[in-house]
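Board notes (copied after class):
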Amino acid sequence: MFKKYDYDHIIIGGGSAGLSLASAAAQLGVKVCLIDKNMLGGDCLHYGCVPSKTLIKSAKVAHQQRNAANFGLKGVNQTHSWDEIVKRISEVQAGIQMHDHPDRFRKMGCEVIFGKAQFLNSHTVNIELSKTWEKFQPANISTDQQIQVSAKRITIATGSRPKIPEIPGLKEAGFISNEHIFRLREQPRNLAIIGGGVIAAELAQALNRLGTKVTILEHHDKFLGRLDKDISEFLTQKLQSEGVNILTNTQVQKVTTSNIDKQIDLLVNQAPQILSVDTILIAAGRQPNLEMGLDTAGIAADENAIKVNSKLRTSKSHITAIGDVNGQLMYTHAANYEAGIVLSNEILGLPFKQKVEPMKIGWTIFTDPEVAHIGHDEASATKAKIAYQVAKFELAKNDRAQAEHSAEGFVKVLVKGSKIIGAQIIAPRAGEMIREWQLAIENNIPLTKIARSTYIYPTFGEANKWVASTHYASKLFSPKVKSWLRFWFHYRGKS
């Protein structure tokens, strides 16, 4: 006899991963309970992707205004209002929030409950109901109580939060993270960013373009040093050329307050240095949200993530963990991808079990120009002992790039024979351009087919064709081929 549970599936966490899984499962007839302690939408909507890309667009327009003379335009207004930018961010979020409203998911068949979830055992969760979101609770629930719910299967999708380093005086002096920057009442005048990753790169460029003096404090010897060498060097030079100060090999010793400013004591290349700023932004990585009684449920985890296998199952086979909380592919689109794997394997029960394939998941850094990546870069291919060749096309040779005064960047593709094993792009539309290489890797499309394809002119996408075409040009236009053609067809052109 089957044991009776309250639900077929409990999903803890209403961010991108949880919402994607809840939506699909409920529409398939699964009885779903979706639990979140905050409003639905997760970090991406409230503190990450959506507000940051909205800010970046405002900063890009300001930068274009400042450089309008490059396009034959003079006298363009170059002022901006921080209040209006923050207002626009809130408006964009509000528009998208409608798609994540709890009533929408209830209409699909989900039970949506707001509160803090704690495991009582591997099938049962206690929910400490939220008073903050009381008006969004189900009508039959009183927030004065705690409730327990059980399910045959459970998915943990609780996401992550900013990792705050232990620095003497930091807490007392005050700091912000991506959870605060988009709601500041005043624009920072002088900003220090502790950490040198993607968040630092995007926000440093955007805020600098809006007039904030920005200094990035990077512990390692290179800014974005984990990325492809060409990309790391390009972005470092790009940000520096726009006025962002990047200090590498830098240790933050302590933080103190002096009048209205914060004083940061540094060791830069082992030399003491003092930096005075009015705002400190922490962008030193992410840590998973694990505080839900994992030990009680027998779920293995360490301080960095819940441990999962390639099918996203935890140490309890009926419990899966998707999104940032498993510490693997920490991107919104990857969270949706992982939700699809759980849907296929656990809910649909398809016989051929899907596995996570990291090399088929790309990413984009939304600087200007954008940076995008899929598969191997040169360092990982070398580490994997793959005999590869590099095909590279400079964006300066692309007609659309010249027309838009956006000729910085390149398309770089790694191949083994004609098999595409990786690609990196720096271009204004890199996030869209990389999808073609992702499809090629997913479907084993050789570089020769890309070279033979027809592209609309003039587009940035043509660079994808030209990187493939130029890779084969030396072979096609070789003396051997010309000699063969002269022999058979008696051509009389230049040897």
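Comment from the instructor: The mean pLDDT is 93. The longest helix spans residues 49-66.
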